Amino acid sequence: DRIKHIRNFCIVAHIDHGKSTLADRLIEKTNLLSQREMEKQVLDSMDLEKERGITIKLTPVRLIYNSKNGEEYELNLIDTPGHVDFTYEVSRSIAACEGALLVVDATQGIEAQTLANVYLALEHDLDIIPIINKIDLPSADPDFVKKEIEDIIGIPADDALLISAKMGIGIEEVLEAIVERIAPPSGDENLPLKALIFDSYYDNYKGAISFVRVVDGNCRQGDRIKMMSSGKEFEVTEVGKFIPNLIPVKELKAGDVGYIAASIKNVKDTRVGDTITSAENPAETPLPGYKKVTPMVFCGIYPADGQDYENLRDALEKLQLNDASLVFEPDTSAALGFGFRCGFLGLLHMEIVQERLEREYNLDLVTTAPGVIYKVYKTNGEVLELNNPSNLPELTEIDHVEEPIVSASIMTPTEYVGTIMELSQDRRGVFLGMEYIEQTRVLMRYDIPLNEIIYDFFDALKSRTKGYASFDYELKGYKESNLVKLDILINGEKVDALSMIVHKDKVNERARKMTERLKDSIPRHLFEIPVQAAIGSKIIARETVKALRKNVLAKCYGGDITRKKKLLEKQKEGKKRMRQIGKVEIPQEAFMSILKLD
Ligand code: GTP
Q1: Residue 125 gets which letter from DSSP?
Q2: Residue 403: CA count within 13 A, CB half-sphere
Q3: Membrane-spanning regions, if any (predicted)?
Q4: Cα gap 132→75, rounded to integer Å
Q5: From the CB of 170, is ligand 1 less than 6 Å away?
Q6: 478-537, pLDDT tens digit by residue?
Q7: pLDDT > 90: what percent of the chain?
Q8: Is the CB of residue 238 below 6 angstroms from any atom belonging to ligand 1?
């Protein structure tokens, strides 16, 4: 009977369609928090998230709802991150639920990212409740969105709920629909423990805490548990629920959503997707679908001031405590000194980590161009997984190189089809097909090398389609490709941090653009500075930074000491954000400016 009064659900929505606003309303309606406490949106609590307006970390919330049928229900809302970098985490939160609210903006319709997540929900047999939000807006067109839901997703939308999360319209109906239309969990308390980890985070006192959905069995303080992927065992120190803060309870049972703390030192031992079982009475098979997430995008991160190396290491270690998918190892660059080679799930993940390092840890960083993992097949039979272009073996030792390819789906109004074809072709995309999902919108499918989208594909897509196209991708596999290493020489010296791996057909254009950009971002010195691009020993592009005509100080008339001082002071400040490469000073922005291709 207990289990019949539980509903576990998530919200699937495209960024900005109103997921957080709806979640806040649900919390408010169930009186979990007073209006005053609601000042801040509860679910998105990280600063950065708020600024970027995207949901990064999952935060579950337990709601108690008194239904119109007179019974009390426990509703567990499991939040899902909305961005393509975090698809695997989305799939685990979906696996922890029986139902999903599909929230679609009444003025926008369905987007590619929503689609990917709805398909995930359908794959897991979730009960889906279509909700059309923002009906308060004059341009809302609920009938159009209903038809879209039926045509594109293929689920009935007759009984879609029409709401305005912002104005608080239709919220009660959403809660009733959760009770009526979503199935209660089906688990067995008497079977051995099986709990799915859908998130984890590091607490200074309690250690790594697993957020779990208990599928079978039960778990309480003092139990010995085992992680099924690693076989590691721990003793449970606390179990609890999200109310919405972590509140201890006596036990978690089949059907429950809650957390388990077990003095675990490292979030790496609480991998998302892993199954927790009992050490004494283990389940025979883990829950399906566990996969170890591996970083796809790499870059070098160096302290702008060499003195900060240890601080940077500390900061990375601290971030890693809460982010099992961030990897890093020490790296040295002739140009940039000591730093780290870091791996990320995707570009957004990379940007978030960089920003947190600069903002929360007050570090000035120099970041090198992002790259992917190449598979280098050597003539001696060895296969190298290369994430740092500087480590590419000599050409004579290489048999061939493979690069990662992703399958991309782009959803766009028909008027931009030509533009997108041009952009994708320019990024070496292979067109696979196009479906009309309605008269004015199409879904285009491409295979594109990951290497080509990690630069500014998102930006280019958005700016060329005025923000109307949406985009999603997943790794498809590796493919042989004609790739070369492009080196940059400044004043005759190779700058290893600027080396990149490029497709042969693109290398001349890239070389030209990089040298132009660098020429523009390197300030004039007292001497002329050649900026060259080379493949091996062959120079393929060159620009020159002209020499300054006179010493700047010559401009101050001999006697004016204070002015001279001021000028020197100013130069010194400018210097802090410069890297000395040989005799040349290169501003930090130069390292990033080469990333913009468009
Ligand atoms: P992510 O956290 O990035 O997934 O975004 P989200 O889907 O949570 O969107 P959020 O709730 O932050 O809402 C996005 C914007 O839409 C905000 O400016 C909201 O105020 C606005 N919004 C949400 N619901 C409604 C609504 O019913 N009507 C109107 N007019 N605006 C709404």
Answers
A1: T
A2: 22
A3: none
A4: 21
A5: no
A6: 999 999 999 999 999 888 888 889 899 989 998 998 899 888 888 888 889 999 999 988
A7: 47
A8: no
